[in-house]
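help with these tokens:
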Amino acid sequence: MDNFREEVKELQIGFKIRRLRQERRMTLQDLAEATGLSKPLLSQIENEQVIPPLSTLLRIAKAFKVQLQTFFQEEGSSEKCILVRAGESRRLHRRPNLEGALPPYTYHSLAYGKKNRNLEPFLVEFEAREWSEELQVSHEGEEFLFLLEGELELHYGEKVMVMGPGDSVYYDSSEPHGYVAKGKVRPRAVAVLYSRGG
């Protein structure tokens, strides 16, 4: 728990969301209506009790008309080149939501500290679970994923594709998509998101 507290404090995603909301003179209700997310969930996110999955962060970014990278950069940083050593990525731990359900993945920011970027790279670790339609999300932009290890099942629109180590996929993320882990090895992948707008 201590590591979780330190890393969340370092990223300050909840603080940044609250500040952006207040700068826009929006209430939690306003943000709930703009994103389709519940007020209690948004409150938990702002208070850093819950780390939102990327699809949720994208909805919040769209409501604020900012880029996703806004939540993964250090204040005042102007570095043009960021080198992230193995084991030094900013990990966002899984935390249960209001219903006690864990997100389907854990993600690590691989470009934390780089300002004014158009791409958002992550190391993603997927959790084993049964497929359900609620795992599918859609948002403007494009995504690229390279599977390092394990086996993943990608649901893209009506298609279902099984991916193995070394496989990669590039797609328009406005189409509903979602992943579910297969096999006994926990899948790990490098994912790069490009989010239009902001």
Residues 1-9 have pLDDT under 50 and may be disordered.
